[in-house]
Write a sequence for this structure.
């Protein structure tokens, strides 16, 4: 019997491994499962269109320094079942979304702004009644979710949303960025403990280098007000046509139809490297708004620079594997290789954990620089993205006296701890300057720009290897010589209120000083900017009375409200406050803006799905260009899409396994002896296959039955296993142990610790809870 039982164990393990190779691609729902993305698995469901989003189109009009954007998403159901489509997509962190409408055939339904919970309730009621409806929610300041319910077979539903944003030049280059795809986010939160606003993290993805399943198009019209000297698009192929010196039309090349897997980036300069400057006014029915942009002096290099300490914090997690990590290596080689002999530096690498080159910063000697570059060169990328502990460790490293500390972070930002990171940086502004480099073709710009915002620095995004040197040089020159310090704006005779920002940080690049606010009465008086430049005091004055309010500046109300919401949200992250939440909600409702607490909802009056609720499908997303399968998680990268193994095939394997069990029954079973134990239930954490674990337990029941001879436990036995990454059992807990003797408990634990299960996902421990009935 023993050889036969061993053979059975080997067979069971082999079958369980077959299940493991497919089941982890779309993890089971369990209490311990984390909110991780997964690879798309083609369903066998007949007549269901799993890819209802057919196209995304953006029409962009830039007038002066304000961009107005209309995004059109087309959903079409080419299957035979009514659908509810869920689509997660990104947006600029500066975007103020102020409108949405839904078009079904000739019917146009304008969306209304509601409190978030009211909008979702209205949407779900309409969905369940069979009405077509759409819901737009903000999951992050730069991540939105669109739900479209009751897309009937043959339907085409268009959803349009409108937003506006400010175009702020850096080094006299204007940049408009249209994000196209949300990169996969690493999370260690469990599905049951996370709030509803976090469930978007669990989303299906295509594999690396697979083209998006929907088409992408964008058209940009620039009316600069001044002569345009240069237009370029480093991310996509475009065609530029000029209509006069100050107007340009930029169209996407037809070859870029499936270019929605990387951010669209458009750069332009004005003739003579001029910058838009001055005062914009808008006179509303109840409130008046202004936007002030004043030019600082050109940077003046200082002769004497104090000692500098640099700590380079480098993301080497799975999502950085390949292209992003290679760019990081180039960036760090450039920064470290150009340090001065009087500088000190350190390197901290992080993924699931972190390691430092030295417990304190080292002199920038040739030997130490070579050691650092070799350390970075040896990295290949793997594991989760634990950014928060890495930053905490960097800030806690021993600091050199009389040295100015600068922390440089290189990451794609694929994490979900933005608030905690912002808090940490804000609370340590006196300890270090912090600059963030976003690496990759579709970085999480919210966290990159947010870290720069709370750290009073400037965000950097590198999408191509050749950009690394220029961006590194930009950072060095920026830190070496601030453009303007001790900046103040004085309003004389111009009655203003609700000004943002309340205080202006040091200006570290050749970019305008921007101030938002409201004003009362008539435009009059003067506005004066003062500060200290490298060559002494700097002053600039504008006469407010010489500027006329314009209806074309209506976007100022949205931009002001959006900026105010951002500021309130930053403070709310430090200390949650119901009053601030109420104010953010009020701003969203008053100015018809999408916020964390307000959403857009559009509901058709016609009942179209009379047979019940629609089938819900999540629109799968492409991996950002250059991002590897490791971003979705370790061994998951070995899956293929669509998966060759269907649900029917898995059922056949279960049937084969049961046949094998019958063939290897013991003689006692053939005589009709009843089994002492049966498997009642199995639950697993993400990283394990439920069916594979059940098979292994089933194969070892006879071993467990030996333990209970003469000491049968009462009723159900519930055990929890912690499984190591190699599949061995780390620990066993008997959860209803009060009903068991010490001897019985020890026997069961000893038996289960001998088990070998499939290797876990991501190289992390996993858990399985097993219920046995006697």
């Amino acid at each position: 019997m023993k050889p036969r039982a061993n053979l059975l164990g080997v067979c069971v393990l082999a079958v369980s491994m077959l299940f493991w190779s497919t089941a982890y691609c779309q993890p089971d729902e369990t209490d311990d499962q984390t909110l991780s993305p997964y690879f798309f698995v083609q369903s066998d469901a007949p007549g269901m269109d799993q890819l209802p989003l057919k196209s995304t189109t953006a029409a962009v009009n830039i007038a002066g320094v304000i961009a107005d954007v209309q995004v059109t998403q087309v959903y079409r159901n080419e299957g035979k079942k009514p659908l509810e489509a869920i689509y997660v997509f990104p947006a600029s962190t500066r975007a103020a979304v102020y409108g949405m409408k839904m078009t079904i055939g000739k019917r146009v339904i304008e969306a209304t702004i509601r409190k978030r919970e009211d909008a979702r309730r209205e949407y779900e009621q309409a969905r369940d009644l069979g009405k077509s409806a759409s819901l737009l929610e903000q999951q992050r300041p730069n991540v939105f979710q669109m739900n479209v319910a009751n897309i009937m077979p043959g339907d085409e539903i268009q959803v349009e949303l409108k937003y506006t944003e400010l175009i702020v030049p850096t080094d006299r280059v204007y940049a408009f960025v249209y994000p196209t795809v949300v990169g996969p986010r690493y999370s260690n939160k469990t599905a049951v403990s996370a709030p509803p606003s976090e469930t978007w993290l669990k989303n299906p993805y295509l594999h690396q280098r697979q083209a998006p399943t929907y088409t992408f198009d964008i058209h940009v019209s620039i009316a600069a007000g001044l002569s345009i000297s240069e237009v370029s698009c480093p991310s996509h192929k475009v065609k530029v046509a000029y209509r006069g010196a100050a107007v340009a039309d930029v169209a996407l090349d037809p070859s870029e139809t499936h270019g929605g897997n990387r951010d669209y980036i458009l750069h332009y300069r004005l003739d003579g490297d001029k910058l838009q400057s001055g005062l914009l006014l808008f006179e509303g029915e109840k409130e008046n708004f202004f936007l002030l942009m004043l030019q600082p002096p050109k940077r003046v290099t200082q002769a004497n620079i104090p000692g500098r300490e640099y700590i380079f914090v480098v993301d080497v997690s799975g999502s950085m594997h390949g292209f992003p990590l290679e760019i990081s290596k180039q960036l760090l080689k450039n920064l470290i290789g150009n340090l001065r002999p009087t500088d000190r530096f350190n390197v901290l690498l992080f993924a699931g954990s972190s390691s430092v080159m030295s417990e304190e910063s080292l002199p920038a000697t040739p030997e130490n620089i070579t050691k650092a570059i070799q350390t970075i060169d040896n990295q290949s990328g793997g594991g989760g993205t634990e950014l928060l502990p890495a930053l905490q460790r960097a800030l806690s490293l021993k600091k050199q006296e009389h040295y100015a500390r600068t922390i440089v972070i290189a990451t794609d930002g694929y994490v979900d701890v933005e608030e905690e990171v912002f808090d940490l940086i804000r609370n340590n502004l006196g300890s270090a300057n912090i600059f963030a480099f976003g690496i990759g073709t579709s970085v999480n710009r919210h966290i990159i720009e947010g870290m720069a915002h709370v750290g009073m620095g400037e965000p950097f995004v590198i999408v191509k290897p050749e950009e690394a040197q220029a961006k590194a040089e930009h950072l060095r020159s920026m830190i070496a010589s601030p453009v303007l310090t001790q900046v103040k704006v004085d309003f004389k005779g111009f009655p203003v209120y609700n000004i943002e920002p309340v205080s202006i940080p040091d200006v570290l690049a050749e970019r305008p000083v921007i101030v938002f606010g409201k004003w009362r009465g008539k435009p009059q008086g003067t506005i004066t900017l003062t500060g200290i430049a490298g060559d002494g005091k700097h002053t600039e004055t504008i006469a407010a009375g010489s500027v006329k309010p314009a209806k074309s500046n209506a976007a100022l109300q949205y931009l002001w409200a959006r900026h105010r919401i951002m500021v309130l949200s930053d403070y709310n992250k430090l200390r949650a406050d119901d009053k601030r939440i109420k104010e953010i909600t009020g701003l969203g409702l008053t100015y018809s803006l999408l916020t964390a607490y307000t959403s857009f909802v559009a509901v058709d009056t016609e009942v179209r799905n009379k047979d019940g609720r629609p089938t819900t499908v999540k629109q799968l997303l492409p991996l950002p260009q250059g991002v590897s399968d490791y971003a979705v998680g370790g061994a998951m990268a070995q899956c293929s899409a669509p998966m060759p193994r269907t649900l029917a095939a898995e059922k056949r394997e279960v049937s084969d396994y049961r046949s094998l069990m019958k063939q290897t029954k013991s003689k006692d079973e053939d005589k009709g002896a009843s089994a002492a134990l049966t498997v009642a239930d199995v639950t697993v954490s993400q990283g394990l296959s439920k069916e594979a674990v059940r098979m292994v337990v089933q194969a070892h029941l006879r071993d467990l039955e030996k333990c209970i001879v003469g000491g049968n436990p009462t009723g159900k036995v519930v055990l929890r296993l912690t499984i190591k990454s190699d599949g061995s059992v780390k620990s066993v807990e008997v959860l209803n142990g009060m009903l068991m003797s010490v001897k019985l408990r020890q026997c069961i634990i000893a038996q289960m610790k001998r088990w070998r299960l499939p290797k876990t996902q991501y190289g992390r421990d996993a858990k399985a809870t097993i219920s046995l009935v006697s």
